[in-house]
Amino acid sequence: MNENSADLPTDWDDDDLPEWTEDQFQRAALYVGGKLVRAANGTLTRPGRPVSENPKKQVTLRLDPDVVEKFRATGKGWQSRINAELRKALGI
Questions:
Q1: Residue 23 main-chain phi, psi, to 5 deg
Q2: Tens digit of pLDDT for each residue in 28-45?
Q3: DSSP the chain
Q4: Does the structure show a pLDDT above 60 at 16?
Q5: CA 52 to each of CA 12, 26, 47, 48, 74: distance values in angstroms, whole numbers, following the listed order
Q6: Which of 9, 18, 68, 86 has the highest Cβ tally under 10 A?
């Protein structure tokens, strides 16, 4: 038994739990016979990110350390700025 489980209350009741909304059921993971049929989308209180029409593709790319550090120094969104610079260099 986990040592933290001793701190959990044992007198909870299902009536204390909030009702799920239809939206929460639609975002929940769906399992059939222990097999995941549909992954969860978001959390109970917040919907997930909208599906992009043109999703990015994850790749492994080796760059010189000084190039990476220069982009990282520009702050949040540095990877998107690398993407923008590559598009500009390619004329797309």
A1: -60, -40
A2: 899 999 999 998 887 777
A3: --GGGGGS-S---GGGSPPPPHHHHHHS-EEETTEEEE---S-SSS--PPPPSS----------HHHHHHHHTT-TTHHHHHHHHHHHHHT-
A4: yes
A5: 41, 19, 15, 12, 25
A6: 68
